[in-house]
Amino acid sequence: MSTFVNRFKNNEDCYKFLSEIKWPDGQFVCAKCGNTTYHKGRSPYSRRCNRCKYDESVTSGTLFNKLRFPILTAFNIIFRLATTGTGNSSVALAEALGIQQKTCLAFKHKVQRAMGAMQQKRLEGIVALDMFSLYNIQPRYYWERVIEKHHIAVAIEVRGEKPGRAFAIVIEEKEQPALIPFIERHVQPDAEMFIQEQYGYKTMMKKRFKNISFTPPIPVLEDHMNNIADWIYNECGRFSPENLQAYLNEFHFRFNHPNNNWKNFDSLIRVMANNNLL
Ligand SMILES: [Zn+2]
Fold first, then answer.
1. Do 18 and 98 lie in a common domain?
2. pLDDT tens track for 68-91
3. Rounded to the nearest whole angstrom, what is the distance from the C-alpha of residue 54 to the centroid of ligand 1?
């Protein structure tokens, strides 16, 4: 964490950074009356409208509003989630940072939603697709109730024997029609798609997507599904199925942006500073 403490030493550093994102180039638009002139407000980095006197805090209208712990702690959580996939259960984070586990978990879900809301390029080149449930990949009795409703559609770029970027969403039913909106959202129309041949709906899928073929299991994709299941089992503790999408967002955020720690962090803060994206 040394890089984090070098950049953010106190709450003031965080407020300053947030204010630069919220009001870029000093631009201000009053949230109440739309006026664009202001003077300094009462709290650190708040701005008071010259016309209606509304004093807008730097966290107002962002996901940092009404935090139940210092903003420095919030930034620290975001940095950890953006940069490493291990040791970030809400229990571990709460203990490391001296906050309540429940409060920590609620904030972590906000970060995960921000990860899912980020603009991400669609997959291109060769793309392998499948649907699975955690329980089928790794039978654990604890996951039995997850299997009932929660299947996962997954798509990954295949670059030779290596994976490229990937996406996954929770779908209601394990049927290929559910894949159609997922493909439309996350895969470039000219990508060459491969899907496991065990499923039906071949004619329907072929009709909808010209570049789709049916194949036996693809190792890169099989590995990816196993990695998702492993990570959720090892790192997410007693996660609730309702939050499965949030965990898939988190996993793929790091998977798709490796080795880019500060860029990841900055993009997340940007999304979280713009609450209406979530
Ligand atoms: Zn105003």
1. yes
2. 999 999 999 999 999 988 889 899
3. 5
